[in-house]
Amino acid sequence: MGGSSSQQAKPVHKEQTELSNRHESIIKTVTVPPTIFATKDEFVRIWFSWKNDFFVYLKNIDKAEDKKQMWGFMLLNRMGPIGQEIHRTFHFYGEDKNTLDIDILIKKFDLYCLYRDNKRGNKNIDEYIHELKSFAIARNYIDPTRIVKDKIIQDMSSQQFTGKAALLIESKGEKLIPYLQSLNLYHITLFWKQCEDLMTQKIDEIPKQNFQQNSTYAKSATTESTSMEQNQNQCTTIWGHQCQLCFPKLCCVHCSKHCKQFNYYTDNYKDKYIYDCTKCGMSHIRSRCPAYGELCIKCNKKNHFSKMCRVPVVINCSKCGMNHAISKCPAYGQICRHCNKLNHLEEKCRLAKCV
Fold it and tell me: Are 260 and 236 in contact, with CB atoms under 8 Å apart?
């Protein structure tokens, strides 16, 4: 009996040993970090699956996330020279200034993997955005709208704007990127289109009837500011035509130094300036609004930028399926052939959907 009992115990012990070994094997596979990238092509090919494995690894070695502030450093270290080389090409700005924040790094690497050096080229803005979004969807990206928004901000931050668009961008200063990040994709698109339209217009393209009046203001300011510059060790470049246009900075365009007599011009010509204009969003001489003559994309009315439009906008209208000003629905007055009723397009007809 004793021998029989001993013989039966052996298989049980053997089975327990196998289970224990299997458990240890699972732990090892989970806690082993993913391999270092060998080439950039390999990075693009396996990044998304590699990223998932890396997070599994992180959450097993730091379950309480006590060292999460080190995750970004661990990511770069684990990626090896290839990942670090790609990281050096990134630009960090606005909310994304922390170069070692894990969430920011993941977003940057996602952007690189999806689009690499893809540029807009000769495509119009709508076509380009549609292409970006379609590509993200094709790659099963979890949030296509967000990644497209990040790509547009990246493109705009490196674009050289000219003409009136340069004034609009300059007026935002360091707040440009945070401003863009605060917008949704639809409004960023409108802002980009507005900038593109303004690039075709030179700064000197102002209403002729206002030119003589503005010249008088410029001469008066120039004469008085010259005497002040002689009395004080101020910048040798006097306030002139260009300084008026880049107001409210009031900086000397040629030397990029801020004028010490900042309040002089505004104190003497308060009635000639508009601060935070409701038409363009900038501060400028009353008769030199950059939005003058501009056509708003939202409401199709002139003399204000789309971003400053106060007309309520309908997103994904139930009558036409488009985005438009509340009073500009393309379906208004249209007769649906399915139900013979007014004010909606055929593809939005509820009767047709029921059929």
Answer: no
- Contacts of 209 by beta carbon, 8 Å cutoff, 6+ apart: none
- Rg, the chain, Cα only: 31
239 and 225 in contact (C-beta within 8 Å)?
Answer: yes
- Count of structural domains within the chain: 3
pTM for this structure? 0.52
Around Cβ 102, how many Cβ atoms within 10 Å? 19
Domain check: are 55 and 143 in the same one? yes
CA 333 to CA 351: how far, in whole Å? 18
Boundaries of domain holding 280: 271-311
What are the φ and ψ backbone dihedral angles of 97, each rounded to 5 degrees?
Answer: -75, -25
Beta strand pairing call for 324-325 and 284-285:
unpaired
Closest CA to 266 of 281, 283, 288, 280: 283
> Do residue 193 and residue 280 come from a single domain?
no
* Chosen domain end from 142, 168, 198: 198
User: What's the helix, strand, coil split of the chain in %, to 5?
Assistant: 55, 5, 40
Distance from C-alpha of 186 to C-alpha of 163, rounded to nearest angstrom? 24
Long-range contacts at 87-91 (CB < 8 A, ≥ 24 apart): 91/154, 91/157, 91/158
294-348: pLDDT as tens digits: 777 777 778 888 778 877 777 888 888 777 777 778 787 788 877 888 888 877 8
The reply to whether 9 falls in a domain is no
pLDDT in tens, 244-272: 333 333 333 333 344 433 344 444 445 56
> Do 119 and 174 belong to one domain?
yes
CB 63 within 8 A of CB 43: no
